[in-house]
Write a structure and sequence with these properties.
The protein has 405 residues and is α/β, with parallel strands linked by helices. It is 27% helix and 21% strand. Bound molecules: flavin-adenine dinucleotide.
Length: 405
């Protein structure tokens, strides 16, 4: 659509796919990326995706790279392979030349001459351009205008906290530099930090399971390596898993992590119904963690562990400061956009593979022309899949076409 400008925040897989989709329809596009292309995927580059390349990539993306040596549709790539073999070539596509501004952070987004409470539900709000305040070392602060905005800035890296109820544990804020909130490469480049050490892992999702399995293999090579694993619910196994999971990699990961927790001979010490109450640094540089475990009788026991590393895989949340001056209706539980969040709450299956995209309408917000896509659209709900994000892009452009008409 010539003459219409689309600004995209984030050059992750969904931001890049959306940018190409827009350029193939002749929109003017600018993508702002606070780091480098696909920074988040590269940060967990050593982890293997559990869904195959064929559903992680779009038809239009693969079609635009006829000369690239693309992976097979059923290939299970690591993050680094997905980046090198697909996302990087996609970002270098001639149609995206000059469109991606790396090392440029979007600070916040508003509407020219319209404050947050103005012109609710009026067409005049749509007709006024968005103003994006950006910052980069090269250009300092700038204000850029756009007719439509796609917020594809993900959630990875905006970590949740370790303590009870999701608030920081006592001392956590002061010690956060010593805590791994992402996914360290335990059997690769970060091995020396974890081998022969006492390591605490907190969390019960697939990230925690990935870390536990990696630590499990370290304990087999280095007998001095010890692992303590805290999960907050009182369940029979740390991960509940999905009945009849069709994704082999994910099913194997769940089974292996649960097996390590159950095996008394393994060096993985699992504490269910537990959370971190306090964390601090001892004079010898080690970390002292007070953990609280709820008892079946309704009380709680406290225990102090002296450890070397804390890996907090306790989830991520969206950065809502980007759109706090816009009219966004968000869910009070997941912090995702309300309509989509409501549809996801009605989705009973824990298996994200069986999820279908809840439909075009669920992407709509009170703010016309603004769409939250990709992992950020699910807020704190970790079930997002790239396959869904690719469907969202097509739906968002149906809405944009109607709004631009
Ligand atoms: C370990 C792991 C394994 C996963 N495996 C799978 C899998 O097998 N299959 C699957 O379908 N999904 C998987 N996912 C889930 C999901 O598909 C990925 O998280 C995916 O990277 C989401 O893509 P995205 O583009 O929405 O966000 P991201 O990849 O998080 O990209 C967001 C981008 O926005 C940038 N950014 C953030 N804030 C700003 C700002 N203010 N200004 C400018 N730029 C900004 C970031 O630097 C980043 O580059 C996995 C996730 C993780 C963490």
């Amino acid at each position: 659509m010539p003459g219409k400008r689309i600004a995209i925040t984030g050059a992750g897989p969904i931001g890049l796919e959306a940018a190409l989709y827009a350029r193939l329809r002749d929109f003017e596009v600018v993508v702002f990326e606070k780091g480098n292309v696909a920074d988040n995927v590269r940060s967990w580059g050593h982890v293997r995706l559990f869904s195959p390349f064929g559903i992680n990539s779009s038809e239009w993306g693969r079609g635009a790279l006829p000369d690239a040596d693309l992976p097979a549709a059923d290939a299970l790539l690591t993050g680094v392979e997905f980046f090198g073999q697909y996302l990087l070539p996609l970002s270098q596509h001639p149609r995206l030349q000059g469109c991606i501004q790396e090392n440029t952070r979007v600070l916040t987004i508003g509407k020219r001459h319209f404050w947050k409470g103005d012109a609710i539900g009026r067409r005049s709000r749509l007709e006024s351009p968005f103003t994006l305040l950006t910052e980069s070392q090269q250009n300092g602060e700038q204000v850029i205008e756009a007719d439509f905005v796609l917020d594809c800035s993900g959630t990875f890296g905006n970590h949740n906290w370790l303590g009870d109820g999701g608030v920081p544990a006592l001392g956590e804020r002061q010690l956060s530099e010593r805590i791994d909130y992402l996914l360290p490469d335990i059997t690769g480049k970060d091995e020396s930090r974890f081998a022969g050490r006492r390591n605490l892992v907190v969390g019960s999702g697939y990230s925690a399971a990935t870390v536990i399995v990696a630590l499990g293999s370290l304990t087999e090579q280095n007998y001095d390596t010890e692992v303590f694993w805290l999960t907050r619910k009182s369940t029979d196994t740390p991960l509940s898993g999905i009945d009849g999971d069709t994704l082999r990699g994910r099913a194997d990961l769940t089974a292996r992590a649960n097996e390590l927790a159950a095996n008394a001979a393994s060096k993985i010490n699992w504490f269910p119904a537990s959370y971190v109450r306090q964390i601090g640094k001892a004079s010898d540089g080690s970390i002292q963690v007070t953990i609280e475990t709820n008892t079946e009788q309704g009380g709680a026991n406290c225990k102090v562990l002296t450890i070397d590393n804390v890996i907090a895989n306790v989830g991520y949340h969206p950065d809502r400061s980007l759109y706090e001056e816009l009219q966004i209706h968000e869910c009070y539980a997941s912090q995702g956009p309300m309509k989509l969040a409501a549809a996801l709450m009605g989705e009973s299956s824990a298996n994200c593979m069986t999820q279908s995209s809840p439909g075009t309408d669920t992407l709509k917000n009170p703010e016309p022309g603004f769409y939250i896509l990709g992992a950020k659209s699910y807020g704190r709900d970790s079930r997002f899949l790239l396959r869904i994000g690719l469907e969202q892009i097509q739906s968002a452009f149906d809405l944009i076409a109607a709004e631009a008409a």
